[in-house]
Fold:
Amino acid sequence: MFEIGSSLREARMRQGLDFEEMEERTKVRKKYLRHLEDERFDQLPGHTYTKGFLHVYADSLGLDGRLYVEEYNSRFVGGDEEGAAGAPRVPRAPVRQRGRRDRRESRGAGIALAAILLVTALVIAAWRFGGHDTPKVEGVNSEPRTTASAAKPVTLSIRAVHGPTFMQVRAGSPSGKPLYTGTLERGQLQRFTKKALYLSLARPGNVAVKVNGHLIVMPRSGRRLFAPAE
Structure:
């Protein structure tokens, strides 16, 4: 067992991130992120949304979102209470019955996993057809991605010239596979080559960024997607 809220808060503060940046990164409103860190789950719109938020928030901090969902289920979602103190002991079932029960439990676990995966679809529908106060989840209401043509891959070079900065590089999109997550110290250089690359910088003014050998100016937000022109 571990503390859900405090571990999320520690991971965020260790990376020097605030709630505004995490709201932009996860597409989850910052007030819901605060509720997760404070473990005020009763202020969130139900178990389904809460598990979806936990999964997305933990993943965005480089943690394992599945572990947080499992911990939440074990502590806050009602389960089988037959083993509680004072409850009558039930004789062990024969081997054949236990095998059938195990298969039923396996099917139940599969259904539960499918329900968790459906949370994104539920939030998509709520966001697109509901009001602005509807919570958002990674992948919801995201801008259309530009399809990369058969042009040559993007080569991205980042050098810390004025000071250190926390940096994250992902393949293809803001939700793509993480290629680098950490602090780029002054004088260090990192280079990546992919069909498309997403770059997020905590302090864009501290670095020099080149795309295919050309120096570019990063936006003040420090986030940009680089893809070949069609």
